[in-house]
Design brief:
Blueprint lengths: L3 E3 L5 E3 L9 H6 L10 H21 L7 H48 L1 E3 L4 E3 L10
Antiparallel strand pairs: 1-2, 3-4
Keywords: Membrane, Transmembrane, Transmembrane helix
């Protein structure tokens, strides 16, 4: 049975398991997240290409087993896997382009985060002003 418990620092954790928790303050002061870019379509494309090569190599290895129907099956498998590989490559390129368009905004957020300071007494983050009154 899992029982939520509170540590001395105020963090909640499960008595059993490996859950990681963060305090509210740690979440507020965390750096901005890098835009996600998934390599899953590219990895799937490589796997599918390897499957196509292995299936062709297995059937073409012994010319006596390569009947016309087996050849048609090989061609169909290669065409289907080629289509899936092309789809995976297209999805990967689209994901990469989306990632690249989100990077400038991420860099601005990161630059702003790096210039912030935290005031424990006020419990706020702020960017110190170089001239004049401090800004909130």
């Amino acid at each position: 049975m899992r029982v939520p418990q509170q540590s001395l620092t105020g963090e909640w954790y499960m008595a059993r398991g490996t859950a990681v928790t963060r305090t509210h303050l740690a979440r507020r002061l965390a750096p901005p997240r890098l835009p996600a870019w998934y390599l899953l379509p590219a990895a799937a494309g490589v796997l599918l290409a390897l499957m196509a090569l292995c299936s062709v190599a297995a059937l073409v290895d012994d010319p006596g087993r390569l009947t016309p129907s087996a050849l048609l099956g090989v061609v169909m498998v290669v065409l289907i896997l080629t289509g899936l590989v092309v789809g995976a490559v297209v999805l990967t390129v689209i994901g990469w382009q989306k990632h690249q368009t989100q990077l400038p905004a991420f860099r601005l957020r990161l630059q702003h985060w790096q210039s912030q300071f935290y005031c424990k007494r006020c419990d706020m983050t702020f960017v110190p002003a170089t001239r004049g009154a401090p800004t909130r």
